[in-house]
């Protein structure tokens, strides 16, 4: 018996890092999961890991920023697993510059992936969620609590130099979270955000300026944190270290379980005690 038996979850950007661990955790607790990633191979690997552990998943490969992706993502959950109970908006990357060097393309790309894509996914999910709530009410049954968890960052709660685009997107997702918690209370959906501090993934591990790049739609984008800065950041964390992707997934899981059914519109900081 898992805590999430019978639930259906969609997790964007679950081929690597934090998203992968969220997908594995939800599946380990009994949820059937739609895995998504921009890159097909990591998505395949997450799927295989879930199945190897005895869980159920399907993949829906593609960029969350593609036209029509949101509808396809939601429809995959409905077609393959018959519903939608948990939405985790996690996909994203960073593309840093000081403001005087930041292009419109850089600004738009980061706002698209961190804010517009979650908005579109929630918009696409609304008819499914509203219809499910209506069916339960008409049958005289309690409407099950559904869950949305949006991923933010301390860059969103406190701002970060060199990340005007990312900080704006990650602050924006908190606004979207609060608005939707008010709009979707009527469907018994809780909408919360988790703002991560330093979590050790390729976003933070790859040394910036020395070849730490990711490929987004054929464009090589530098990610990562300079190793000296990384060490300094770790020293500022009260727990004395960056978090693991598993620990990050644990914070998201807290908003997916029945014990958090009366918590909505909140932003939980997962940063080892570090907060800004
Ligand atoms: N690692 C940290 O310290 C940290 C801190 C704060 C917030 N975050 C946030 O956590 C989330 C996950 O980051 P991570 O550290 O696990 O990074 P990661 O690079 O390890 O994993 C992110 C995954 O998202 C995928 N992805 C990126 N753009 C996508 C798109 N357009 N469509 C579909 N998939 C896409 C990537 O291919 C990758 O597999 C992001 O939203 C990130 O901003 C991370």
From TrEMBL:
Catalysed reactions, as listed in the record: a (3R)-hydroxyacyl-[ACP] + NADP(+) = a 3-oxoacyl-[ACP] + NADPH + H(+)
Keyword tRNA processing: no
Protein location: Secreted, Cell wall
Annotated Ketoreductase domain residues: 7-187
SMART domains: PKS_KR
Keyword Secreted: yes
Source superkingdom: Bacteria
Protein name in UniProt: 3-oxoacyl-[acyl-carrier-protein] reductase MabA
Organism: Nocardia vulneris
């Amino acid at each position: 018996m898992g805590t999430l038996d019978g639930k259906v979850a969609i997790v964007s950007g679950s081929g690597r890092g934090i998203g992968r661990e969220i997908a594995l955790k939800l599946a380990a607790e009994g949820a059937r999961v739609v895995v998504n990633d921009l890159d097909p191979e990591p998505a395949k690997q997450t799927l295989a890991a879930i199945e190897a552990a005895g869980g159920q998943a399907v993949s829906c490969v593609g960029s969350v920023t593609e036209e029509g992706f949101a509808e396809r993502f939601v429809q995959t959950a409905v077609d393959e697993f018959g519903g939608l109970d948990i939405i985790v908006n996690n996909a994203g990357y960073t593309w840093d510059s000081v403001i005087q060097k930041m292009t419109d393309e850089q600004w738009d790309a980061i706002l698209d992936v961190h804010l517009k894509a979650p908005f579109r996914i929630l918009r696409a999910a609304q008819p499914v969620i509203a219809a499910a709530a209506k069916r339960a009410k008409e049958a005289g049954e309690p409407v099950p609590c559904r869950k949305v968890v949006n991923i933010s960052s301390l860059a969103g709660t406190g701002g970060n130099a060199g990340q005007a685009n990312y900080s704006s997107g990650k602050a924006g997702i908190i606004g979207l979270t609060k608005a939707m918690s008010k709009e979707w209370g009527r469907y018994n959906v809780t909408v919360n955000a988790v703002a991560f501090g330093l979590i050790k993934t390729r976003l933070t591990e790859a040394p910036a300026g020395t070849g730490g790049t990711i490929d987004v739609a054929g464009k090589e984008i530098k990610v990562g944190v300079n190793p000296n800065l990384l060490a300094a950041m770790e020293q500022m964390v009260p727990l004395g270290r960056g978090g693991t992707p598993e620990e990050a997934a644990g914070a998201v899981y807290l908003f997916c379980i029945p014990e958090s059914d009366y918590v909505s519109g909140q932003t939980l900081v997962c940063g080892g005690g570090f907060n800004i």
